[in-house]
Design brief:
This is Prolyl 4-hydroxylase alpha subunit Fe(2+) 2OG dioxygenase domain-containing protein. InterPro entries: Pro_4_hyd_alph_FE2OG_OXY. The protein is mostly beta strands. The chain contains one helix and twelve strands; from the N terminus they run ββαββββββββββ. The strands form three sheets. A five-stranded antiparallel β-sheet has the order 1-4-10-7-8, with no helix packed on it. It has a five-stranded antiparallel β-sheet with strand order 2-3-12-5-9, with no helix packed on it. Strands 6-11 form a two-stranded antiparallel sheet. Strand 7 and strand 8 form a beta hairpin. It is globular, with a radius of gyration of 17 Å. The N and C termini lie far apart (40 Å).
């Protein structure tokens, strides 16, 4: 029996971005993992689950160039027990690329430090529940570098059942 090849179909009207497999991304300085641990603790507190050791998994490294965007969509579960998404924008010089998150027809916009001029020299992040509709507005100048993490309940957590 042969194995069928699986291809990702790309519709440039929906999404236009370059992506690198997370297996090809590594952080050698322990300050990154230490900082991510602190951030994860803050995220747990903000999401109402303080004290829970959430699991965070790198899902993608994205590069948005001029014209890059992602139309309104909802995330699918990329890792077991995933319930939220963490977007970490690395220092990058660009215009556009704001993240819009929608909740009950209310749009929250995250500019990742563009208004304050900090996008080029500091990391910025946003967290949203995986089932929240969200979109990335088009980049019209420069390049935007982004790490996407799946936020998951720890494997030690009780299973949650919905009826």
């Amino acid at each position: 029996m042969g194995v069928a090849s699986i291809e990702t179909l790309v519709d440039l009207k929906v999404r236009r971005t370059w992506q690198l497999d997370p297996k090809r991304v590594s952080f050698e300085d322990t300050k990154w993992s230490d900082g991510l641990a602190v951030l994860t603790t803050q995220i747990a507190k903000r999401l109402g689950c303080a004290g829970v050791d959430l699991d965070v998994h790198l899902y993608k490294f994205l590069l948005y160039e001029p014209g890059g965007h992602f139309a309104k969509h909802r995330d699918t579960e990329k890792h077991h027990r995933m319930f939220a998404t963490l977007v970490v924008q690395l220092p990058s010089i660009h215009k556009g690329g704001e993240l819009s998150v929608f909740k009950q027809d209310v749009e929250s916009v995250y500019d990742f430090g563009q208004r304050t001029g900090q996008a080029s020299h500091a990391c910025h992040c946003a967290v949203h529940y995986a089932d929240a509709e969200h979109a990335v507005k088009p980049i019209f100048e420069g390049y935007r570098l982004v790490l996407i993490y799946s936020i998951c309940w720890p494997t030690t957590a009780q299973e949650v059942h919905q009826f």
